[in-house]
Amino acid sequence: MATAMRILMVTSELAPIAKVGGLADAVAALAKTLGRLGHDVTVALPRYKVIEEAGLMLARRLVPLKLPTSEAFTFDGRFAPGVQLLLLDIPGLYDREGIYDHEGQAHPDNLRRFGQFCQAIAAHAEKRAASGEPYDVVHLHDWHAALAAPLIAGRRAVVGNGPRTVLTIHNAAHQGLFPIDEAVALGFDAATLTASDGVMSALGTGVATADVVTTVSTTYARELASADGDAVGALLRARNAPIVGVTNGVDYATWSPSTDPHLVARYDAEDAANKGRCKASLLAELEMTVDPALPLFVALGRVSSQKGSDLLAEALPQIARGPAQIIVAGEGEPELEARLIAAVEECPDAAIYLGHVSEAMTHRLLAAADAVLMPSRFEPCGLVQLYAQRYGAAPIVRGTGGLLDTVVDCDAALATGTGFVFDDATGEALGAAAARATSAMRTARWGELRRRMMRLDRSWERPARQYLRLYQAPAAPASERVEVAPPAPPA
Length: 491
Ligand code: GLC
What we know:
alpha/beta, Rossmann fold, 11-stranded mixed sheet, 6-stranded parallel sheet, 22 strands, globular, disordered C terminus, binds alpha-D-glucopyranose
């Protein structure tokens, strides 16, 4: 291995201690993999109440970090071999319910919560440099970490050196938009912020000031770079440097049916007989009909328009008439939850809505499922389809973003393919794809499809090495570049 790098990961979520969505899984797995590859990794996140409650062993540092309008206390812990945990506590900001929101309401002081978190990150990086152990790279994830980029760049302009910054966009739909005056009141320099009409974009600021910008799949990179009129897309084009797509992997230590402690019986690609036991046991637990001949469709994850929950509600009765069984899990936008509940009530014997489920239940649902429904309107990467393949459940996905990069549509004979892909964002198209899967399940080739999916190699090793190359060199290998159009001439 080349020399070990000192890497600081900056994130608002980290599985399993602070998880809302896929970001938590992706950052945790990347950090663990880099640690395993021999690098010196520190993951920094706010010291939320949930983390305090998890009862981790933490050591509090005596001297707080000075911020422009506050101070931050730091706590050190250990996350995994080679991976340190750094928790930042700023009085009044994190000791409450909810990482981003509570009872459907975003915390009103989220700019302060994550802006000061970024200031603390920059102060910490500076302190490390002063102690003679500077970070080589600071890897920022999503808008919550993005405001550290201009601070680190500013410092580098003054002292002549400093860590390289890499910003990964997990979801450009969440930009962190706030009145610029509020950011200035927190001590940010207006000249370093990206704003329009008095509204500052935290993600846009990161895009404009980070050394390298990546996103979580090649197709989403292309979609972002070409999204005309989209604010982040315009910034990406203005960078005049490629945005790099690095597709997420799967943490096999957590997601493998051959070792999964949450399952009643374990199985793998070569012998999947126990998958049937997992299905029967889950159906019995949920008091649903146990009939191996009935296909079981599962939908998992946030209930939102991004995830196409309305399309699912629309198609659900038709899919149930297959005949098939459907389990919907996850929570989110109340209006969409209501539509899902109404759809499920139309087919009381075939479908059930579980709302929020535990991590353990998520594993059991994947092991039980014959197919997993993901009708996303857009999807930067998506992890559930990768987990589904690993657990031998065929993903049924809309062809967008990372879904398109990770699921190959099956041909009619099931000789090739790793799932079912449809194009139109309609309930009808979803229903038709589910019907294709239902008839495929009745054929003898289904077992082959299952084996092919379960054998895919999606380990984090490959994406981790791609990130390492970006940490070391500013320009990506040509094959990983997404060419972006030059910025439009000023009007
Ligand atoms: C966000 C995206 C999702 C991606 C995940 C991890 O949750 O919406 O597509 O898989 O981040 O990168």
